Amino acid sequence: MQGRAMRWLVTCALISGTALSAQAETPLDAEAFDAITQGRTLTFLVDGAPYGIERYMADRRVLWSFLDGQCALGEWYPQDDSICFLYDIDPEAPQCWEVFKDGDGLRTVFTEDPDRPAIYRAREGDEEMICENFGT
């Protein structure tokens, strides 16, 4: 009988701990995001494959590339629980993300997708930022 009671307690503790950790996860706010990203260049991956690179500069300015040799200048700003980006190539279409600390990188979820299926990860990488449209 004690064995069953102990298993029940352990199971309840595991379920509670999982539920609490899922609820406790909150997106980074603007100050935390800025502290983590400013001065860094991060590679973004989906399903483990690089699909873009972004350099974070002072005053919330960014430089983005899809790793195709073309770059876009932009800026980021906080909005509710998201970090939103506006780029010079489409200044009327902000892209907003929930951003979470994930080990030594970031995990991002695109908030404009109602199904939110894709999880993107960001890390410092070896990929080179090439901006042929800026002559670099």
Keywords:
8-stranded antiparallel β-barrel; Lipocalin; disordered N terminus; 2 helices; alpha+beta
The CATH architecture can be given as: Beta Barrel
Task: Name the helix and strand elements from N-terminus to C-terminus, one letter apiece.
Answer: HHEEEEEEEE
User: What's the shape?
Assistant: globular
How widely separated are the two ends?
72 Å
* Mean pLDDT score: 84
Tell me which oligomeric state these chains represent.
Answer: single chain
Keywords: Signal
Signal peptide: 1-24
Briefly summarize what is shown:
With 136 residues, the protein is an alpha+beta fold. It has helices at residues 2-24, 30-37, and strands at residues 41-46, 49-56, 61-65, 71-79, 82-87, 95-102, 105-110, 120-123.
What does this structure look like?
It contains two helices and eight strands. The protein has 136 residues and is of the alpha+beta class. The protein has a single domain (26-134), classed as Lipocalin (Beta Barrel), CATH 2.40.128. It has an eight-stranded antiparallel β-barrel with strand order 1-2-3-4-5-6-7-8. The termini are far apart. Residues 3-23 have low confidence and may be disordered.
Compile the SSE list and pairings:
Layout: H1 2-24, H2 30-37, E1 41-46, E2 49-56, E3 61-65, E4 71-79, E5 82-87, E6 95-102, E7 105-110, E8 120-123
Antiparallel strand pairs: 1-2, 1-8, 2-3, 3-4, 4-5, 5-6, 6-7, 7-8
Signal peptide: 1-24
Keywords: Signal
